[in-house]
Design goal:
The structure holds 2 protein chains of 2 kinds. By secondary structure, chain A is mainly α. Chain A has a domain of 176 residues. In chain B, helix 11 runs parallel beside helix 13. Helix content of chain B is 73%, strand content 3%. Chain B has a domain of 230 residues. The chains are: A mainly alpha, B mainly alpha. At the A-B interface, helix 5, helix 6 and helix 7 of A face helix 16, helix 17, helix 18 and helix 20 of B.
Chain lengths: 522, 500
């Protein structure tokens, strides 16, 4: 059972999708909805052992299953989770339940195809986080694009076609270049490593530090383009607002909650340990882009008049934080980045859900159309307040823990980094609080808003797990951090230890030269 | 002087012999068949082709054997190429059975011409001499001129046939001139003899001769025309658009496969000494082809024409495999057999995918209506989810998306490029292939995201079981090869093993 657990979790949604396609009629919408929800719930229940039976002292992969797949080129079906991926897997299974349930009333046409797409999406994302074989990873990484393309393109807003193809092409351009990077890594391993063809990450880890820095930098750039577009980091972020604004609520939740994490996860899983010297080399560049992202995202968010767009730009800013933490290249920074990935998934996911709820009722997302909502919809306002505060990083809620760790990490790396990051936090508080003020305080003067109804039971039910997690991580982050600590420690050690001899060599070079010169002089 | 009778072994040339018999049988049977029952000729040809497939399969692994004084060679490489050609032919016939009736071209000659073209292809695959390769090429070309213009009552088809014929005849002339010059310089037409003449000190003198370089350019141009590499591609969009759709599918795979077999033999076996020169020429053509094929496809509104341009782009990817097979280290030429096996695998992947994509057009075809325009596919994904999904699978594979055959194929092609450090070529190629997703997915967008117009005719797919079966097999094969490419890779590798 243990061996097949991850495979089961990954492919149950796929099986569900096939069953929906084959055995349900278009008109049976209620049956399709219930079945899809059941599938996601079963998937979540199956993923619970990943939390309870996870060995927190083990840095390597657990629950592994390895089967040879294409032996001639060394591809294997190799899945496993470690501290870096386990929480993302759990986040995915939870988010999938939420996004399925939140679509019941939001999606009213072509339901069958919709739930099929959601379930396919789920398989793609879970596989991406679990794959230990780079080939397998790439396959899942690419597969996620297709259902998302359909989710945005069919059930999206007014500019859905443009947003869908833009999302698709942007990400694709990055990932095909990454494919070249993967191939380069594969052939370098043939030359410098064991000599046997393999895409197995655990074996490639060993060869990474041996790659000459020139080639390593090129491979780094290839991976960088692939993942940075996904994150998205500053100059590559323009697809994100379009995709988020046009996507249906569930699409936005999945995009923000999980899809973007595939980028940041990629950096921690592949770039840092596989290309340690290049990672060190590019730190200033990466930090610069992250800081620009943090501040630029926040400033642009402040200027938005559309709530959903505001939340979308806030994602750019938040993921800038994650990247800053990751490229601090120390324990606190990477750990904070990891935790912040989860936090962002929870709080931004919840924000998109909340925006979706109000949009369903009012069919507008303009901030100026709202005002004074707190008296009309108290439950909604309360949840919104908590979520907003979690996003800002108020102590006691999840955002604080992640941001704090990132700042500690950044501070340890350089206080210039930390200083800029703090500006981002202040700006983040500013646009969020201002948004809240404009929407919920003041007078309820718009007659349309006076007819607004509060959250119904279903909505409260799917928001509840998000809120619970916000408090849980905020008040008692220990179990979360404990699961990640050891694996993060390993990554940090790999990126730093491997870089050390290189630095020593560089430092010792003049000494060596001097001694040689001396020898000649004497 | 006694007359030396060259060794002739018909058993080595069994596929060609079998095919010649089949052609005779079909021609004679055609005389006794009434106009209504011409589809029977198709079925007869199909059965014959199936047997032909068995013969080719039987020859697999028989080692390298030559006959007809070295004009003809049978090895794993030729068997592999023949197998691809034969399978393509089988699907072409399967797709044509009903389609020929709809286009009112249901004559016995239709199938006979296909078989004649296949005969030429088989000879090309086994050509070990410039003469036999040229003979095969001409047999194939002349039959395809006829096939392209087979819809006599359609001016588009006639125009396509004429264009294709004029360009093709001109090209054959160029190629023949190249052959003549090479013969003049080396005194040989056999591929291995040419290679021998070009090696050593004497060879160095020939290589230095500008006429040899000119002859090489003629070879590149001649084959470039046949493969429709940019800038020699002008005939292709018109020919592919005007031809009967099943013939377009046939040509895009089988003609390409056979020509590539000849290209591989001529350049790698006869001209390894000139690898530095032809490799540079092909490098340029590859870049132009990949980029222009994809860019021009974006502007098309006719789906068949778009697929025609996309097949130009795919010829570019295939050439990328040929170019990157050659590695020049310090003036010494090293060939990487994996590059050729990547090309062979890609052609198999391309076969199932492209036959499927054109097959979808045939699937939508009716007596009074061709589904050739992108607009005709509007809303189809909504009302016919399975047909829509099949098309999406083919597009994903054409675009090189996992988990389809096209992805694995591209992975191998670009893998060789990276391995032999053709980084820029790889980057250009892979970005061009990312561009291709834009136009493939424009069709997907039309199918799924735009409602069918009020004035558009109702969607009605062909009810012929042969087309349905062909498409089903092709979809499954496209996905299967994406998930489990192992056996075909192994076959491709072993077919290249003794070649270079």
């Amino acid at each position: 059972m243990e061996n097949y657990l991850l495979t089961l979790i990954t492919f149950i949604p796929l099986a569900g999708a096939v069953i929906v396609m084959l055995f349900f009629k278009k008109e049976q919408t209620v049956a399709i909805k219930s079945f899809a929800t059941a599938v996601t719930i079963v998937d979540f229940l199956l993923s619970i052992p990943l939390w309870t039976r996870f060995d927190t002292s083990e840095a390597g992969f657990q629950f592994v299953q390895k089967v040879s797949w294409i032996p001639t080129i060394g591809v294997s079906y190799f899945v496993g989770v470690d501290g870096i991926s386990v929480l993302l897997v759990l986040l995915t299974t939870i988010t999938m339940i939420v996004s399925t349930v939140c679509s019941f009333s939001a999606i009213v046409d072509r339901e069958k195809e919709y739930y099929v797409c959601l379930l396919l999406m789920s398989t793609g994302m879970l596989g991406t986080f679990m794959a230990v074989d780079i080939f397998l990873f790439y396959v899942f990484f690419e597969i996620t694009l297709v259902p998302m393309y359909f989710l945005i393109g069919i059930w999206g807003g007014s500019r859905k076609l443009y947003a869908a193809i833009k999302f698709f092409l942007y990400t694709l351009f990055g990932s095909v270049l990454m494919l070249l990077g993967i191939l380069a890594l594969y052939f370098v391993n043939l030359k410098l490593g064991t000599g046997t063809p393999t895409f197995d990450l655990t074996e490639l880890y060993a060869v990474g530090p041996k790659i000459p820095i020139g080639l390593q930098s090129w491979i780094f750039l290839a991976f960088f383009v692939g993942f940075a577009i996904k994150v998205p980091m500053f100059p590559f972020h323009t697809w994100l607002p379009d995709a988020h604004v046009e996507a249906p609520t569930a699409g936005s939740v999945i995009l923000a909650g999980i899809l973007l994490k595939m980028g940041t996860y990629g950096f921690v899983r592949f770039v840092l340990p596989l290309l340690p010297q290049a990672s060190q080399l590019f730190v200033p560049f990466m930090v610069l882009l992250s800081i620009i992202g943090i501040i630029y995202g926040a400033l642009v968010a402040m200027a938005q008049t559309d709530v959903k767009k505001l939340v979308a730009y806030s994602s750019v800013s938040h993921l800038g934080f994650v990247m800053l933490g990751v490229f601090a290249l120390n324990q606190q920074g990477v750990l904070g980045g990891q935790l912040q990935m989860i936090n962002h998934g929870i709080s931004t996911g919840a924000l998109f859900l909340l925006v979706g709820i109000i949009y369903e009722r009012r069919h507008t997302r303009q901030i100026s159309d709202f005002g004074g909502l707190s008296t009309q919809v108290p439950i909604y306002s309360t949840i919104f307040a908590v979520t907003m505060l979690s996003s800002i990083g108020l102590p006691g809620l999840n955002g604080f823990v992640g941001e704090f760790l990132i700042l500690v990490g950044a501070f340890k790396a350089s206080y210039v980094y930390a200083a800029f990051a703090v500006i981002g936090i202040v700006l983040g508080a500013a646009y969020m609080l201002w948004l809240f003020q404009r929407m919920f305080f003041g007078t309820l003067d718009n007659p349309e808003n006076q007819k607004l109804t509060d959250c119904n039971t279903r909505e409260i039910l799917y928001l509840l797990p998000m809120v619970v997690l916000m408090f849980w991580i905020g008040l008692y982050p220990r179990p979360f951090l404990a699961r990640m600590e050891v694996s993060v420690g390993k990554v940090v050690k790999m990126v730093n230890v491997a870089a050390a001899p290189q630095n020593n060599k560089a430092a010792s070079l003049p000494v060596e030269l001097r001694s040689r010169l001396k020898a000649k002089n004497f | 002087m006694p007359l030396v009778i060259p060794d002739i072994s018909l058993s080595i040339a069994a596929p060609e012999v079998g095919l010649a018999i089949l052609i005779c049988v079909v021609v004679v049977a055609d005389l006794f068949t009434s106009m209504e029952n011409k589809a029977g000729m198709g079925i007869l040809s199909l059965a014959g082709v199936a047997i032909l497939g068995l013969i080719v399969l039987f020859q697999w692994g028989g080692g390298v054997r030559t006959t007809f004084s070295g004009f003809y060679i049978a090895d794993n490489f030729s068997s592999f190429v023949k197998m691809v050609v034969v399978v393509t032919t089988a699907f072409t016939i399967l797709l044509s059975l009903q389609y020929a009736k709809m286009e009112k071209i249901n004559y016995g000659e239709f199938y006979v011409m296909i078989l004649f073209a296949v005969f030429g292809m088989l000879v090309m695959a086994s050509g070990n001499d410039l003469i036999s390769i040229y003979l095969g090429l001409e047999t194939m070309s002349i039959s395809s001129y006829v096939l392209v213009s087979f819809i006599r009552h359609d001016p588009l088809s006639r125009e396509a046939g004429l264009k294709y014929f004029l360009m093709g005849a001109f090209t054959s002339g160029i190629l023949l001139y190249g052959i003549a010059l090479t013969y003049g310089l080396t005194g040989a037409t056999s591929l291995t003899e040419i290679a021998k003449a070009l090696s050593g000190l004497q060879g160095a003198a020939i290589i230095a001769d500008p006429v040899m370089v000119f002859s090489l350019i003629l070879f590149v141009a001649g084959f470039g025309f046949k493969l429709a590499l940019v800038p020699f591609h002008m005939w292709l969009p018109d020919a592919y658009t005007g031809a009967p759709t099943s013939i377009t599918a046939f040509m895009s795979v089988a003609v390409k496969m056979a020509t590539l077999a000849a290209v591989i033999r001529v350049f790698f076996i006869a001209f390894p000494a000139l690898a530095g020169k032809w490799n540079l020429l092909l490098w340029l053509l590859t870049v132009f082809t990949m980029v222009w094929g994809n860019v021009a496809a974006i502007a098309q509104t006719n789906l068949k024409r778009m697929l025609a341009y996309s097949s130009i782009a795919h010829a570019g990817y295939i050439m990328l495999g040929i170019v990157t097979t050659t590695k020049i280290v310090g003036g010494k030429v090293v060939f990487t057999p994996d590059g050729i096996s990547a090309v062979l695998f890609y052609l198999v992947a391309y076969m199932v995918t492209n036959l499927g994509a054109f097959g979808m057009l045939i699937y939508l075809c009716r007596e009074d209506f061709r589904g050739d325009n992108i607009e005709d596919w509007r809303g189809i994904g909504q009302d016919h989810p399975w047909a829509g999904m099949a098309f999406v699978v083919f597009f994903l594979s054409l675009g090189g998306f996992p988990p389809t055959a096209g992805f694995v194929g591209k992975l191998f092609l670009f893998g060789t490029a990276i391995q032999n450090e053709y980084y820029w070529l790889a980057v250009i190629g892979i970005l061009a292939s990312a561009v291709s997703i834009y136009y493939y997915f424009r069709v997907v967008m039309v199918m799924y995201m735009e409602p069918r117009g009020e004035s558009q005719p109702a969607i009605e797919f062909s009810k012929a079981p042969s087309i349905f079966v062909a498409l089903l097999v092709l979809v499954l094969a496209t996905i299967y090869l994406g998930l489990f490419p192992g056996s075909i890779i192994a076959a491709a590798k072993s077919s290249v093993a003794g070649l270079l």
